Amino acid sequence: MIVKQGGDSVDVVIGTVKGDLHSIGKDLVRIMLEANGFGVLDLGVDVSAGQFAQAVREHSPLIVGLSAFITSARRLLPGMIGEIRAAGSSGMKVLVGGAAVNGAVASEVGADGFSPEAVSTARLVRGIVNAVRR
């Protein structure tokens, strides 16, 4: 499932990582980002590193958001983040969220940030986008 919402540009690419079929948290984040005016490309659930990387190459987002609800999905994050970073620009940020991650895990896996829920994710994204566009 690929859902493009918002303006013409893609500010954020989001998806739930490979092996994880949970979507409610990711969907809430998408809704909050759209409500705040961001262009969001939602890749759905069970998304591979290659699918994320392809979306990054095609849309050049400012931010990629990875959702991991289960521990086995969390274990994939370092490799996925490496592949995503290789496909994107040096200024692109990778954020993680979901029940299987926290701030410490985000740091361990090489993410640029973590948010525990949808409202704070929208604030975090707004801060990153404002800093990039200054």
Give a verbal description of the structure.
The chain has 134 residues and is α/β, with parallel strands linked by helices. The chain has one domain (14-133): Rossmann fold. The chain has helices at 24-35, 49-59, 71-74, 77-87, 103-109, 118-133; strands at residues 3-5, 12-16, 40-42, 63-67, 93-97, 113-114. Strands 1-3-2-4-5-6 form a 6-stranded mixed β-sheet, sandwiched between helices. Strand 5, helix 5 and strand 6 form a beta-alpha-beta unit. The chain is globular. The model has no long low-confidence stretch (mean pLDDT 92).
Question: What fraction strand?
Answer: 15-25%
Q: What Rg is obtained from the alpha carbons, in whole angstroms?
A: 13 Å
The portion of residues assigned to helices is: 40-55%
CATH-derived architecture = 3-Layer(aba) Sandwich
What is the terminal separation in angstroms?
33 Å
The helix-and-strand class reads alpha/beta
Instruction: Please list the strands of the largest sheet in the order they lie side by side.
Output: 1-3-2-4-5-6
What's the number of extended β-strand segments? 6
Note the run of SSEs as H and E: EEHEHEHHEHEH
Q: Could you give me the name of the CATH homologous superfamily?
A: Cobalamin-binding domain
Largest sheet: 6 strands, mixed
CATH top level? Answer: Alpha Beta
> What is the residue-mean pLDDT, rounded to a whole number?
92
Number of domains: 1
Outline: globular
Give the count of helical stretches.
Answer: 6
CATH fold label: Rossmann fold
- Which residues form runs of ≥5 with pLDDT under 50? none
